[in-house]
Structure to design on (262 residues):
């Protein structure tokens, strides 16, 4: 349960080695988030994050979860809940917030030449999260409370021809999470969809930063603000709300020309 000040006390990060995910956890620990589960494919990468969070005072467990292993999601979600026992030692503790931070960007030209790789990217970014989030929200509904925070992207708001494989996977994820969030109204479970622009992280290392680029810490601040205020949609930076509203309404021929250069 959230503490008396309304701050979350426990967090599950799906994609536990994500730079943005780590920044969110580091931002929330001083506010009272003391129990954290990092779930992902590579324990050694997550242990490095776990050590930083333990040094900041949190209790941290690392568990296995592969977005692409759809048949394994039920057990992976169960294991994540079991990883942090209840503080009284009886059964599993509650998880106040689940952050979906897994994702792959891919290289558009390579993906167009390799349809299997394109479909695998869609599995990690969209189909895998569909399965995982249905297991997660069922568990949160059983608890009667919880917030799911999903890292979508401005790339899904209007898909560009220069990265339509990634962009369409985020569009699917974003739409799924909006519908799932609405379906949970009245259950005590909330959904927060976060749409960052270009973030300086491992995912974008070596790429030229476009205007309005931001940092994992800025995304973390926006997530912390949304958790405190109850926002359901977050743009990072906030200016993207208006930029994308304009882009969304551009006539198709104009968007085709403009997005070829973006
Ligand atoms: N960076 C940006 O510009 C940006 C902008 C908008 C949205 N986002 C979104 O924000 C999220 C976090 O990105 P980031 O910037 O923090 O990048 P990151 O540091 O590269 O994190 C991506 C995470 O996804 C995990 N992952 C990849 N494939 C996986 C799989 N099959 N199963 C489980 N985990 C998997 C990676 O772990 P392993 O590879 O170790 O498994 C890593 O922890 C992503 O969803 C991304 O699409 C990023």
């Amino acid at each position: 349960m959230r503490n008396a000040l309304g701050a979350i006390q426990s967090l599950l990060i799906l994609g536990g080695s994500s730079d943005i995910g780590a920044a969110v956890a580091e931002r929330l620990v001083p506010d009272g988030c003391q129990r954290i589960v990092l779930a992902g494919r590579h324990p050694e990468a997550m242990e490095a994050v776990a050590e930083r969070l333990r040094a900041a005072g949190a209790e941290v467990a690392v568990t296995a979860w592969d977005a692409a292993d759809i048949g394994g999601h039920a057990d992976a979600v169960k294991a994540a809940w079991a990883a942090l026992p209840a503080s009284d030692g009886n059964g599993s503790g509650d998880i106040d917030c689940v952050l979906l931070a897994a994702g792959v960007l891919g290289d558009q030209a390579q993906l167009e030449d390799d349809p299997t790789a394109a479909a695998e990217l869609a599995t990690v970014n969209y189909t895998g999260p569909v399965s995982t989030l249905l297991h997660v929200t069922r568990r949160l509904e059983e608890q009667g409370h919880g917030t799911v925070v999903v890292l979508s992207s401005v790339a899904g708001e209007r898909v560009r021809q220069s990265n339509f494989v990634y962009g369409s996977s985020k569009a699917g994820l974003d739409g799924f999470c909006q519908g799932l969030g609405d379906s949970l109204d009245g259950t005590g479970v909330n959904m927060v969809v976060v749409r960052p622009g270009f973030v300086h992280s491992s995912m974008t290392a070596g790429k030229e930063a476009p205007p309005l680029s931001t940092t994992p810490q800025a995304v973390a601040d926006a997530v912390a603000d949304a958790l405190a205020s109850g926002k359901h949609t977050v743009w990072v930076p906030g200016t993207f709300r208006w930029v994308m509203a304009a882009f969304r309404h551009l006539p198709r021929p104009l968007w085709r020309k403009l997005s070829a250069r973006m």
